[in-house]
Amino acid sequence: MNTCNKLQAVLFDVDGTLADTEQDGHRLAFNAAFHDFGLSWNWDIDLYGKLLQITGGKERIRHYMEQYAPATLERSDLPEWIGSLHKAKTKYFESLMETGHIPLRPGVARLIQELHQEKVKLAIATTTTMENVMALLKSTLGEASIEWFAVIGAGDIVPKKKPAPDIYHWVLNQLKLSPHQCIAIEDSENGLKSAMAANLATLVTVSGYTRLQNFNGAVAVLSDLGEPFRPFTHISGDTLGKQWVDYQLLNKIIEDALYH
Length: 260
Ligand code: XBP
Ligand code: MG
Known about the structure:
By secondary structure, the protein is an alpha/beta fold. It folds into 2 domains: 3-21 and 104-258, Rossmann fold (3-Layer(aba) Sandwich); 23-98, DNA polymerase, domain 1 (Orthogonal Bundle), CATH 1.10.150. The protein is built from 9 helices and 7 strands. The longest helix has 21 residues, at 78-98. It is globular and about 55 Å long. The mean pLDDT is 95. Xylulose-1,5-bisphosphate (XBP) is lined by residues 13-16, 22, 26, 55-57, 126-129, 132, 162, 188, 191.
C-alpha cells in the first residue's frame, strides 16, 4: 500500500452534522417568520420532519405552499415574496444562534481543532444560507474559527441543492483537490447521496430527524463523532475498533477507499 496518500481535506455538512439545528433552530425561525407575515402556518416537529425531505428553506416553503396551502401560490410576486419571508427567517435563525442555545454535536470541536493542527484543510458544503453558517461558527467555535475553513460552500451558490452533487463539486473545485483526497461528513440521506455522487468517501453521524434513513454506501454510520470520555455508538462500517473519530481514522478511511 502506498502510504503517501494522505487525507487532504474534510468537507463538513452543517445542519444535523455540526449541530442539531433543525428542530429547535430552523423550525422555530420559520414559524417566527410566518407569524411576522401574518400567516397561520405552524410547522410542528412531525410535519417539519417530513418537510426536511426538501432541502433549502425557500424550496421548503414553496413545497409547503403547494402541498398544504395552494391558494397562497396565486400571487404575481411569488419568488420575491418567498425570498422576503425566507430573509425574515434567516434573521430569526441568526438571533437564535447568538443566544448560544444550540451547541456543537459531540466530537465536532475536538475533531475540527485536531484537523486544523494536522494541517488538513477544512471545508463546508451545505444547503443552508451563508449567514446561518457564520452565526453557528461564531456562537460555538468563535469568530476566529471562520478563518480555519479554506472553503465554505453554502445556499444558492449552486443552482441545484443536495441530493445533487453540485455543492460538493463546487467545494472540491475551490479546494483544487480530487474527491479521493477528501472525506465528507454528513447526517442525512440527501447529504450522503450528494457527497457520494461527487465520489467522496462519506462518514455519517445520524441526527434526530435522520436516524431511520437509508445510509447504504457510507463508509461508516455512527451515532456521532464521539469523544475519548464519551464513545460513539457504532451503527455500521469499519471503524478500526476506534471509539471516537479522529485524524488517524479519517486518514485510514481515505487509504482504504483508494486501494481496496
Ligand atoms: C439543511 C437544509 C437547510 C436548512 C434551512 O442543510 O436543508 O435548508 O434546513 O436552511 P445541510 P435555509 O444539512 O446541507 O446543512 O433556510 O437557510 O435554506
Ligand atoms: Mg445535514
